[in-house]
Amino acid sequence: MQIVRFLLILILATLILPQTHAQISSNAFYSEPTQYGGGEVEDPIFFYQDINGATLTAPPGINYQWYQYSTNSGAFEIMPGSTGSMLNSIGENGYRVEVEEASGNRTNHYCWNFVPDAQVDSVGIPFASCDNLRLTAYTQNKTLTYYKHKGDNSSLTVDYGYEWSSSPSGPVSENSDYTAFIDAPTEDTEYSVVVGGKFASDLPPAEASKSYSAIAVEAKYTFETEGTADNEATDGSAPMVVRFTDESLGKVTDWEWTFGDAGKDFVANPIFTFQKFAENGYPVVLIARNLDAGCESETEPEVFTVSEMVVKVPNAFTPFSTPGDNDEFRVLFRSVNKFTMVIYNRWGRKVFHTSNPEVGWNGRIGNRKAEPGVYFYKIEAEGFNPAEKAELEGLVHLIVN
Description:
Strand content: over 45%
Number of helices: 1
Shape: elongated
Distance between the termini: 100 Å
Largest sheet: 6 strands, mixed
Radius of gyration: 42 Å
Structural class: mainly beta
């Protein structure tokens, strides 16, 4: 029973443990796997500074036979006399070794070998618009070709690798191809590419750069709303005065501000007054242009809302009892253009008058404190919109605790 259990454990372990794939080794300074794809086992690609000193070593075994790839036949052809575990004096080509193991099992192993030579002539910009750029590294890299020997025998080439950068930094650094399609920058930029950087530990990479004079613009702005606790408020009472500050990027030569139905302006930093209530508000849009290049950019609408006229009246105040709290009889208002408020005592005598809705009655008649009790008010108000009027009459209690 113990033996059976041991055998079951051994079988399970064999199934669960990852199976290793022995490969040819080399004295190359750098290696990477092939890119056959399609489920094929990838082979090593070895890179050397000088192929004359290159050696290949087969996985452990008792007998060996080496083969060399032939582009004429599209197959690995036997190398007579190459029957040792190590192969010397190789060329830039593919090799296969057949290994006979002590068990009698025969396995085949493959590799490819190259001396890379990265060369880049220049960085070009074959396409440029107000929105996008195409950068291209024009190279004369030595072509390193290998073949899908277990598949359709189609050819593949080694990717030298492209490392893009820019000053100022930008999205091109995310690209690793010989060409990059990116958003057009709004400031003059130096683009650089390094080709063959993965070989840099032993072989110098190739480098090139290109200066680009930006033509693109990006419309942006900030604003401050006067007379509000939050100076970035997009809603308020008329007249609503807003200071706009252009912060567009790029070589802007022309500005066009649209304030909904309220009007337009064509300066960089306008101060605009919204006078009237509009049911859907005022969508503000900035269009920034580079007229020299024919480029423009437009912001998303920012809606500014002007309140309808509001006048609300309290029914009591305590001018002498709680200093700093409810000291004045004052209306709550928004978007009031014209205003009058008159207050009378119980005998019809006028005790207070104002045409400013921000001014309230402090409970005094002249320099004398008014008697506590009931007073009468009459208010007339007009808004900024036509026919926007209000007439309010009522009682207010002057309370002394």
